[in-house]
């Protein structure tokens, strides 16, 4: 087993393997819009380094705790049999166990992505590919599944009828108080004819059954949802779409349950894009604060300066304020990449602590171009907690963070780690 190794360092931002063709160079840029500070007192510890073929490779989903303090997560590739990815468990001592190896049985899912959910001691998640439809086994880049792991055994609950690159669900699952699960798929089972867009669906998992509760339409509706949903205390669902809206750069939407079992959608905001006001393009997952306001990030956009690092913006943090009259107001509180040590291309979900601060990662940017972990307050003032080197500490984090009761942060780096077989990613802890 990989033994935990402690690394203390202060460096700067990185990049996701999915964006590697878009962001190739990080260079200094002197102008600062929001104050950025770096801290010295954080302790960054590598809890586990993935070896690749045997234990998984390229972790990209958020981690979740069980009642015993074990961490669960997924890797998009690797595994002992077919390299279709794995569900893993990491105990408090840093010992890793593969809970499920995807792909050894025909019709199993492949390429697990997004957040897993634990309900009643069982584990639920989604895969971007694999499955079986009408007796035909889907390839790794087709279909996609919802799965359940109970008593150490995995069962495919549903296979999506998709054939594109983003056919299956990719954002993972969330649960409500009743144990129902919700997720998104960027492509609807019937396809979408609107301007060549994928449209997509929101689905519900209840008592092992998967049903579609909403199908996205043509613009000005959003399309191609790819990030996990969030749920409020009233049972309303909130999410983002990577395309669609009035200008095609994505939306924030709300789904509210009706008494007859249907759901009603409200578009809360449509993004203006790379050069149309600087509010960002292609939003990621959301977070809700104590007052019901929404916070999120966009992968790109934020300003239209042609000379900056990212061309037209490295992404933003935005706030959607819930007004007393029921409307929503959007405000950009941070623009990434305007200083040499800041992150670029934020990804994953934001995470709030009890003090109202929130945490996130970027997959690119900074002095080493391998990503950062940051903390931010409601005004947008950023503190860099760790900058990845791409070496033994990992690099290119793509998933959101997890917080324990003591305020320590846990996450995954999608690459790096310098294992004996190469850099297949790490699980890390930041003690504050």
What is the fold named in CATH at topology level of the largest domain? Neuraminidase
CATH class of the largest domain: Mainly Beta
> Which regions have little confidence, pLDDT < 50, spanning 5+ residues?
1-40
As a percent range, the share of strand residues is 35-45%
CA-based gyration radius: 20 Å
Strand order of the largest sheet: 1-3-36-35-34
On the 0-100 scale, what is the average pLDDT?
A: 84
- Envelope shape: globular
Counting helices, strands and paired strands, the structural category is: mainly beta
How many β-strand runs? 36
Number of domains: 2
> Tell me about the biggest sheet?
5 strands, antiparallel
- What count of helical segments does DSSP give? 0
How far apart are the first and last residues' alpha carbons, in Å?
Answer: 27 Å
Proportion in helices: under 10%
CATH architecture of the largest domain: 6 Propeller
Write the layout of secondary structure elements.
Elements: E1 5-6, E2 36-38, E3 43-49, E4 57-59, E5 64-65, E6 71-77, E7 86-90, E8 96-101, E9 109-112, E10 117-119, E11 122-130, E12 132-133, E13 136-137, E14 145-150, E15 153-159, E16 174-175, E17 181-185, E18 201-206, E19 209-215, E20 222-223, E21 230-231, E22 237-241, E23 243-244, E24 251-257, E25 263-270, E26 281-288, E27 294-300, E28 316-322, E29 328-335, E30 343-352, E31 358-365, E32 372-376, E33 382-387, E34 402-403, E35 409-413, E36 426-431
Parallel strand pairs: 2-33
Antiparallel strand pairs: 1-3, 3-36, 4-6, 5-6, 6-7, 7-8, 9-11, 10-11, 11-14, 12-13, 14-15, 16-17, 17-18, 18-19, 20-23, 21-22, 22-24, 24-25, 26-27, 27-28, 28-29, 30-31, 31-32, 32-33, 34-35, 35-36
């Amino acid at each position: 087993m990989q033994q935990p190794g402690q690394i203390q360092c202060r460096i700067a931002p990185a990049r996701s393997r999915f964006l590697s063709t878009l962001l190739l160079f990080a260079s200094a840029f002197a102008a600062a819009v929001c104050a950025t500070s770096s801290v010295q007192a954080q302790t960054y510890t590598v809890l586990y380094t993935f070896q690749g073929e045997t234990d998984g490779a390229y972790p990209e989903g958020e981690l979740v705790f069980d009642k015993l303090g074990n961490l669960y997560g997924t890797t998009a590739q690797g595994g002992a049999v077919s390299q279709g990815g794995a569900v893993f468990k990491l105990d408090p001592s840093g010992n890793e166990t593969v809970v499920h190896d995807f792909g050894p049985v025909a019709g199993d899912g492949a390429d697990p992505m997004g957040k897993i959910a634990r309900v009643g001691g069982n584990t639920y998640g989604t895969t971007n590919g694999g499955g079986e439809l009408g007796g035909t086994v889907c390839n790794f880049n087709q279909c996609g599944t919802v799965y359940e792991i109970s008593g150490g055994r995995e069962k495919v609950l549903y296979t999506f009828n998709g054939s594109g690159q983003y056919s299956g669900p990719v954002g993972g699952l969330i649960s409500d108080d009743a144990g129902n699960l919700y997720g998104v798929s960027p492509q609807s089972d019937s396809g979408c004819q609107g301007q060549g867009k994928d449209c997509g669906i929101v689905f519900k998992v209840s008592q092992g059954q998967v049903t579609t509760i909403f199908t996205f339409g043509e613009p000005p509706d959003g399309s191609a949802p790819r990030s996990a949903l969030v749920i409020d205390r009233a049972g309303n669902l909130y999410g983002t779409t990577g395309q669609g809206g009035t200008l095609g750069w994505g939306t924030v939407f709300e789904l509210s349950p009706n008494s007859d079992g249907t759901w009603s959608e409200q578009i809360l905001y449509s993004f203006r894009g790379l050069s149309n006001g600087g509010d960002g393009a292609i939003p990621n997952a959301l977070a809700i604060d104590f007052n019901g306001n929404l916070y999120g990030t966009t992968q790109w956009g934020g300003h239209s300066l042609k000379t900056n690092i990212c061309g037209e913006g490295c992404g933003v943090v935005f706030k959607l304020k819930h007004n007393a009259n029921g409307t929503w107001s959007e405000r950009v509180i941070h623009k990434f990449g305007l200083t040499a040590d800041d992150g670029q291309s934020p990804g994953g979900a934001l995470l709030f602590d009890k003090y109202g601060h929130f945490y996130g990662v970027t997959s690119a940017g900074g002095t080493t171009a391998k990503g950062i972990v940051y903390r931010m307050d409601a005004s947008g003032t950023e503190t860099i907690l760790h900058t990845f080197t791409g070496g033994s500490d990992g690099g290119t984090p793509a998933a959101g963070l997890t917080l324990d009761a003591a305020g320590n942060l846990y996450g995954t780096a999608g690459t790096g780690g310098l294992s004996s077989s190469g850099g297949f990613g790490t699980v890390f802890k930041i003690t504050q």
